Amino acid sequence: MSDKNALIQPDRGQKAIAIHLVDKDGLEAFLKDRPPAQRAALSAHKFAADGYDFAIIPDGEDWAVVSGVANTADLSSWCMAKLAEKLPAGTYRRVGGEPGPAMFGWITGQYRFDRYLSEPDEEGPRILLTGEPKAIEAITAEAEAVMLVRDLVNTPAEDMGPAQLEAEAESLHKAFRSEIRVTRGDMLEREFPMVHAVGRAAARSHAPRMIELEWGDPKHPRIAIIGKGVCFDSGGLDIKPSSGMLLMKKDMGGAAHALALARLIMQEQLPVRLHLLVPAVENAVSGNSFRPGDILKSRAGISVEIGNTDAEGRLILADALARAGESEPELIIDFATLTGAARVAVGPDLPALFTREDATADALLSAGKAADDACWRLPLHDGYREYLKSDVADINNAGTGGFAGASTAALFLDKFVPKGIDWAHFDTFAWRPAAKPGRPKGGAALGLRAAWHMLSTRYGQTGG
C-alpha cells in the first residue's frame, strides 16, 4: 500500500471531517459546548455515548461525527473500528486528541475478503489522520500481519494447500533474504516420518512437506516459531461428519499465525535468530491413509500409537518441535488449531495458552491484554499424562477418558520439546464465528499480537 493510499496518514493540516469521541462521563459537558443544531441532531439520534454508537451532526457547511467510547483517556484498538466500516469514504481527524491504538482497528475494520466476488465493493478508503507519524509504520505492520492471517485462513483448501503455504514462505525468503529449506517425498519420510504419514493420502498436488526458514544474525538469541499447517482436515479414516468439515479450511490457521509473526519479526528487524517451521499436509482419505492402531515412528525416536487419525495436528507438530529443539533455541512458540476442547473451555475469542515457565505465561498474558489480544492460560498438569499411555508404544496420540482434551494435547506436544527449553503453545481457533467492529466473521488472528508484543519487549524492541 502506497503512502498516498495508506489508511493512516500524517496530519499536515489537510481538510478532514471531524470525529468527536465522547464517553458517558463526559457527555453532559460535551453537549453543553455544542451549538443548538448539533444538540438537536444528537437528541434526534438518541445519542447516549454507548460504545460503537455514533451520530452525524451538522458542522457549519459540512458535517462531523460523534462517537461513543468506553473511556476517552484509554482508547482500545477497536473503539473507532465501526466508524471505519460505516462512514463514507473520505479523510477524518479526531478532535481533541490522537487516535492512538484505535488506528489499528481503523485499518482492520476496512478489511474485505473479496477474492472470489465477481463484483467486489469499489467504495473508496476511509483515511484517518494522526499527529504521531512515527506510530504509523508499526501499527500498519501489525494490521497487515493480522490481515495476512485472515486472507490465508479464508482461502479455501483447493487454493491454500501445502504448495501455497510453501509459496508464502518463499515470498518471505525473497523479501528478507533468509535461508529456506523444504523437505518432501522420500526425504520427508526419513526425516519427518509423522508429517509424511499424516499427509501421504493427499493428492500429489497437495503432497506433504516440511517448510523451514532461518533468518537473522546467528549471534542473536535463537527462537523458533512453529505453525500447524493442516490445509484441510477430513479426520482421516476416523472421518469427521460433514458438519465437522465445514470450517476445516481453517485448520492451517496455526501456520498462518506463524508466517505472519515471522513476517513481523523480519520486517521490524527484531534482533533474534529466527527458525520458522511449518509442517504442511492435508489429512485426506485414500487407500494409503494412516490407520487407527498404527504405530508411527517420530523424528525424536518416540513411537506413537494412533488412537485417532483425527488427532493428526499434534503428530506433525511433534516432528516440528523435535526439529526445532535440535538447534537448542532459548524459546519455542507454536500456534495450532488443535482441539475442540479448548473452544469448549474458553470459547472462540480466547486462544488457550500453555507454557512451561510462569514468567513466559505472565509476559504473554500481559502483552495480550495491553494489545487487545487477550489469551487464557490452561494447565500442563502432570497428572494428566496418564491419559496418553499406550500398551504397545511410547505414547498414544489420543487421550482416553474424555477429560482435559486441550491439556492432554499440550502434554503430548510437551513430550517432544527437549527439557530445559522455554516453550509456549497457543491452541487458537483462528476463526471468528460472528463479526465485531474491526473483526469480521471469518479467519482471525488470535494470539498473534500477544506473541509479537511479548517478543518485542523480551528482545528489546517496542513493537509499536
Structural overview:
This protein is an alpha/beta fold and 464 residues long. It folds into 2 domains: 3-132, 3-Layer(aba) Sandwich (Leucine Aminopeptidase, subunit E, domain 1), CATH 3.40.220; 142-458, Zn peptidases (Aminopeptidase, 3-Layer(aba) Sandwich), CATH 3.40.630. Helices cover 33% and strands 21% of the residues. The protein has 15 helices and 20 strands. It has helices spanning 24-32, 36-44, 81-86, 102-108, 134-154, 162-176, 185-191, 193-199, 242-245, 253-267, 313-326, 340-346, 358-370, 405-414, 448-458, and strands spanning 8-10, 17-22, 54-59, 62-68, 90-94, 126-130, 179-183, 209-215, 222-227, 229-233, 273-283, 295-297, 303-305, 331-336, 352-355, 376-377, 395-396, 422-427, 431-432, 442-443. Strand 5 (90-94), helix 4 and strand 6 form a beta-alpha-beta unit. Helix 7 packs across helix 8 (193-199). It is elongated. The two termini are 19 Å apart. The relative contact order is 0.12. The model has no long low-confidence stretch (mean pLDDT 96).
